[in-house]
UniProtKB/TrEMBL annotation:
InterPro entries: Cation-dep_OMT (IPR050362), SAM-dependent_MTases_sf (IPR029063), SAM_O-MeTrfase (IPR002935). It is an enzyme of class 2 (transferase). GO terms for biological process: methylation. GO terms for molecular function: methyltransferase activity. It comes from Endozoicomonas euniceicola. The keyword Glycosyltransferase does not apply. Its EC number is 2.1.1.-. This is Class I SAM-dependent methyltransferase.
């Protein structure tokens, strides 16, 4: 994947960002050892950014769309209060098994609620308000995820969209995914019910706050 910043700066940011917990380091290693596409994992920069946002916004109920092996979910869970909950949509049972194993090792299973299946089918089963949503599944469905979850987010709550710069291809979109994300970024900054900032963190994070 094309780096948004130079590889040297990316590495520097990685090294100068607070070390992850031992549990997150073990999960990252297991993801590299036991999955075919470990690059799907978000990693330290995104994970620590999400953890920081969850802490700053006093999040208690969080939804992640696209959990994979649970790196971002576990990062966020570490910032949630004891009665906090992270609901995670995921369609891959092997990835779910790894996430559950490492949540258990971290002693945080009580905060995890996995919604197994296709996200657009499982999200409607969620009741109550959400403080934060992290969108990181099927790029072509991002707009649908946003429309479905924005009404569920409390006023002042956050939606964070990953891969918002999609390999840098949003500048001159030449495939369906790049076009979908470019259209979504355009749409978000024109809405008047949210405010947002698009940051070049890893593959791009679009941070949206509901007015
Ligand atoms: C980029 S990975 C997520 C990485 C993860 N957020 C992390 O922090 O490591 C995308 C995940 O979304 C899942 N996924 C893709 N489309 C989905 C859908 N429609 N419903 C549920 N999960 C989906 C994939 O199985 C994959 O595990």
């Amino acid at each position: 994947m094309t780096d948004i910043v130079t590889p040297e700066l990316e590495q520097y940011c990685h090294e100068m960002t607070g070390q992850e917990s031992a549990a997150l380091q073990a999960l990252a290693q297991a993801t590299r050892d036991r999955t075919r596409y470990p690059d799907n994992m978000s990693g330290r920069l995104v994970g620590q950014t999400l953890k920081m946002l969850a802490a700053l916004s006093n999040a208690r109920r969080v939804l992640e769309i696209g959990m994979f092996t649970g790196y971002a979910a576990l990062s966020i869970a570490e910032a949630l209060p004891e009665d906090g909950e992270i609901m995670c949509c995921e369609s891959n049972p092997r990835a779910i098994a790894i996430a559950e194993e490492f949540f258990a090792q971290a002693g945080l299973s009580h905060k995890l609620n996995v919604l197994f299946g296709m996200a657009l089918e499982t999200i409607p089963s969620i009741e109550g308000e959400l403080d934060m949503v992290f969108i990181d599944a099927d790029k072509k469905k991002y707009q649908d995820y946003l429309e479905m979850t924005l009404p569920m987010v409390r006023q002042g709550g956050l939606i964070i969209i990953d891969d918002a710069l999609w390999k840098g291809k949003v500048l001159t979109p030449q495939d369906e995914r790049a076009q979908a994300i470019a259209d979504l970024n355009q749409h978000i900054c024109q809405r008047n019910d949210v405010e947002n900032v698009l940051l070049p963190v890893r593959h791009g994070l679009n941070i949206i706050r509901k007015r």
